[in-house]
Structure formats: C-alpha cells, structure tokens
Fold:
Amino acid sequence: MDVPGRFSRNAGERYSSMLDYSFRDLESIGEIEFLKPRKGLRPYKCSASCGLYMCNAWRMNNNRLTNIRGIVSTAFNLLDRPEHLTWLDLSFNKITHLTNEIAMFPSLRVLYLHSNLLAEFELCLRHLVQIGSLYSLTLHDNLLDKDVNYRNKIVLRLKQIELLDFTRINEEERKRVHFYGRIRGVKNVAFQRNHQLH
Structure:
C-alpha cells in the first residue's frame, strides 16, 4: 500500500503526513470547511502566513459522498499549497461519477477511488487520463469493474500509472494489453465499415 507523503518532493521538509476527514459522515465535500480534521499520530502543521494546513495527503474515505463537486475550492480553503497534493483517498463512499476537478491537482500521484458507485467507464477514464502525474490508482469494487476487460481498458488508456488496485503493472502485462488494444482497434474499424455499408 502507498504511504502518504512518499511521493512529495517536499516530504519530510515542510508537510505533515495527511489531512484526515475520514469517517465524518460527510454528504458533500463542502461540509469539510465547517469541521476539524481527525487527530493523527502527529500534530498538523499550519502555515504561519495564512493558517492553512501544510499537508500533501488528504483522506476523505468512509463517508457518504456522492460526487466530488467543490473539491478544488475546498482544497484552496484548507491547504496551504493544494498544488502539492500528492495523495487523495476517496474510497468507501457513494461517488457515482467524476468531473474534471479531479484532474486539477498537478502533483497527484496516488488516488484511491475503490468501493464507490462509479459506473460510467469512458467518462471516468476521460478525466483520469488528464492526471499526468498519477502513479497509483484504485477503482476496484465499483460498478465499472464488472466489465470483463476492466483492467485491460484502464492499463491501455492510463499509460502513466504503475499500480492498479494495489497490483503492479509489469512489462508483460503492458505488452498483452497493447496487443488487446490493437485487436480491439481492428474490430472497431471493421464494425464501422460494416455499419457504413448497411
């Protein structure tokens, strides 16, 4: 499992480990601004200039969130440097879809989305592919993982990731998925030609 702070360029220098809003019965991300985070093993560091949390990891797992609306504005109201956020946990919620807000954290390396209600595969991938820094992703235990080609589709589209659902993507798998992509592309072209003929 990934460790918060591990991928931060500033880890151990000026950031505390994580901002923890797990198990708070949240229905919307905006509610966070009216709550104090859970106490961690270490006290939170706050910026002397603005009083915002100096964290590069943010935990919102095990709540009742149905979407991620407002995540960027909330990050700017809570975090000293939201552009340095590297680790985000949204697992065990009721999130049904993603928006382009998920791609607005340029340093994001680890994203946990498992155990939600995500169902729109293509829409989900369309937003995730924009996170060029993404290293580790979890999407298992969503409605979309019922797709027989679930893992192949993700590895094919999200070429930047190295870990999917806590399992490393090795070279052999990448070659196999590349072949799957070529076959799929040939089938799509054939289908389109047949459709045009009719």
In short: The domain at 19-170 is CATH 3.80.10.10 (Leucine-rich repeat, LRR (right-handed beta-alpha superhelix)). The helical segments are 71-78, 121-128, 150-157, 171-197. DSSP finds four helices and seven strands in the chain.
